[in-house]
Design brief:
RNA-binding; alpha+beta; about 35% helix; about 20% strand; about 400 residues; 16 strands
RNA sequence: GUGGGUGUAGCUCAGUCGGUAGAGCGCCAGAUUGUGGUUCUGGAUGUCGCGGGUUCAAGCCCCGUCACCCACCCCA
């Protein structure tokens, strides 16, 4: 029997890889003063349809529980964040800097870098409208990627500001009600050749041309706030990977200002992370009127990218010491030695049944165990054992009480 | 949901013209019983995705089906 489509089994090596990624997420966030939080994996279906519309239910693991309540496995974290902040935001000092590392479920067609279950890192600053918050969040995202061994040369942080884009459209005298569909076209410019044509249909030839031109050459003079965000990003050392790019709008309707996506340079992968500012979402969803900026980074595209760059988790050490009883009579003393080691916090084990010493040594070195302890009758008569370093072959005889 | 590709050992894969299933890696055991990594020898492992059809004979050909991968749609 196989796992369900889009779901993954994590064998020890796979899990080690996932944990490696997650620990980079945790450390980058904690280092920047973000606090970890979490919520339920299963939520009322309504929590998600309220935010995204009833159609979203088709893309969720949604069902009725035994009490006939419509429920869904969470496809994202933001609605839960809004609920939890609604309950407590008044009591929390601002800005609120929270992050989560959680598992999500979406009933979609699995694809390259996309499954029906995945882990995602979410980092949000709530309660600050300042551009410096936007920059800090981006810096945290990049920091995690750096910790995994990616360099600035590997990364492109494409960044835009919907406010600037909207202002540009206003300057072109594009009516407000057309803005959203224009955003949609711009979002698709790189993937869909028809998008250019549709843009012309909406805007007319001259305005479309002007807009396309602006996309190629961002008029930073007309994007004051973005300029401040970029400046702060440079303070965080992101200068080498920043790319102001008006074409980044992101699909989400709720972004209000800064939007950004992080890509791998020269890789045919979708964005490894994406986010932006959503100042109205909290109040729109009935929460406190707090500004917010944040991003999400999933484990799947990131794993593909790391694999492509030959980056992997440093080899983990299952055992620090293998204790070898040299004959059948040493089984019990070997266990005593292991017990002593474990009580001192040293990961160690010994065979369940007598094993030839040469075989035990071979298995120890094959597994990368750095040292073994040999328990033989001669030394054990004086409560002593032989400690052997496998890398050098050096060994010494020590008393049980001197074991480290 | 639509289109394309792939399904053979634990993993990566080979398998010619249709003729009883292969390699490498890994795993297990051994090379005189208290000393490893290299090496050598031996061993185990398959519903050839599944079901049907053609044929004396199918991993191979035909039909169906399922799963996975890739692309589209979507992307919170």
């Amino acid at each position: 029997m196989q796992p369900l489509k889009g779901f993954r089994d994590f064998f020890p090596q796979d899990l080690a890889h996932l944990r490696w990624i997650q620990s980079a997420w945790h450390s980058a966030a904690k280092l920047a003063g973000f606090e970890e939080w979490d919520g339920p994996v299963l939520e009322p279906l309504k929590l998600f349809t309220d935010k995204s519309g009833d159609e979203i239910a088709g893309q969720l693991y949604a069902f009725e529980d035994k009490g006939e309540r419509p429920v869904a496995l969470r496809p994202e974290m933001t609605p839960t964040l809004v609920r939890m902040l609604s309950a407590r935001a008044g009591a929390l000092p601002k800005p609120i800097k929270w992050y989560s590392v959680a598992q999500f479920f979406r009933y979609e067609q699995p694809q390259h870098g996309r499954g029906r279950e995945f882990f995602q890192w979410n980092v949000d600053v709530v309660g600050s409208p300042h551009p410096a918050a936007d920059a800090e969040v981006i810096a945290v995202a990049v920091e995690a990627l750096r910790r995994l061994g990616l360099s600035d040369e590997d990364l492109r942080v494409r960044i835009s500001d919907r406010g600037a884009l909207a202002a540009f459209l206003v300057a072109l005298e594009v009516p407000e009600e057309l803005h959203l569909s224009v955003f949609e076209c711009i979002d698709k410019l790189e993937r869909d050749p028809a998008a250019t044509r549709r843009l012309t249909e909406i805007l007319g030839e001259s305005r479309a041309a002007e807009l396309l031109c602006a996309c190629d050459q961002f008029p930073l003079s007309r994007a004051e706030r973005l300029g401040v965000v970029l400046e702060a990003c440079r303070d965080w050392g992101l200068g080498a990977c920043l790319e102001p790019d008006l074409r980044i709008v992101r699909g989400l309707a709720y972004y209000t200002g800064t939007v950004f996506e992080i890509f791998a340079r020269g890789a045919k992968l979708r964005a490894v992370a994406g986010g932006g500012r959503y100042d109205r979402l909290m109040s729109d969803m009935g929460g406190p009127p707090l500004e917010a900026v944040g991003f999400g980074m999933g484990d799947m595209v990131l794993s593909l990218l790391l694999a492509e760059r030959g980056l992997e988790a440093p080899p983990g050490m299952r055992l620090e010491v293998l204790v070898i009883g040299t004959d059948a009579s040493m089984l019990s003393p070997a266990r005593e030695v292991v017990r002593e080691l474990r009580s001192r916090g040293v990961a160690s084990e010994t065979a369940y049944a007598p094993v030839r010493v040469s075989k035990a040594l071979r298995s120890a070195s094959n597994q990368g165990v750095p040292r073994v302890v040999l328990v033989g009758p001669d030394e054990w008569a004086e409560r002593k054992v032989v400690v052997r370093e496998l890398s050098s072959g050096q060994q010494r005889t020590v008393h049980l009480s001197e074991l480290d």
